[in-house]
Amino acid sequence: MRYKNRKEAGKVLAEILADYVNRDDVFIFALPRGGVPIAAEIADALHLPLDVLLVRKLGVPGQEELAMGAISVGELCVLNEGIIAQLRLGEADIEKVLHREKAELDRRNQLYRDNRPMPDLSDKTVIIVDDGLATGATMRAAISALKKAYAGKIVVAVPVGATDTCAEIEHQVDEFICPSRPDPFRGVGAWYDDFTQVTDAEVIALLHQFGGRLDGPAQGDGIKVSRTEGRPS
Description:
This protein is α/β, with parallel strands linked by helices. It has a single domain, classed as Rossmann fold, CATH 3.40.50. Helix content is 35%, strand content 20%. The protein has seven helices and nine strands. The strands form two sheets. A five-stranded parallel sheet has the order 2-1-6-7-8, sandwiched between helices. The protein has a four-stranded mixed sheet with strand order 3-4-5-9. A hairpin with a 2-residue loop joins strand 3 and strand 4. Helix 1 packs across helix 2. The longest helix is centred in the middle third of the chain and has 23 residues. The chain is globular and about 50 Å long. The relative contact order is 0.22.
């Protein structure tokens, strides 16, 4: 399946998620920036509030598209030990990337959410939306953050994903939706006719339109690091 653009992909997912329409115990969280236009279509169709779950990929130095982990709001860091060991990355390499991505995470939290923490998700259903799954590093960090926030049910909804990554993520959540799982995958952008980069201005406008910027309790007092085994692809 190919999509004309993110808007069309969002409409496809909204149809699949129709059972969640008008639910007052459901939150939609997008992974910015690419997941926001897709999540906005779902929020519009299902009459649900939209917010962002801020997660940053930790790219390997010199190979930034290759994820060695991810960091999320809520001071959670997930590291992929398989990649770190294979590439013989030292603590200094990891700390440098972590510092840079933490700064960008803080910038986005201020810009998109007025530096507010996550809302109270206890016993709520949370639908996480992105524009696709490649390695799944950012999605795994997002799932870990939601589990830490005691979300009652976690649903992942993406338009397209790599077959093996989908199989991994599917076992980590309560419900997994991905209508297109091509093999070979060739990257998320290969399955969109228009994969134009989403801007900060677009993200902010959509959050205002669909009720983001939700209040929540204070965050933790330090970065919690979780280490996982994983493949380097």
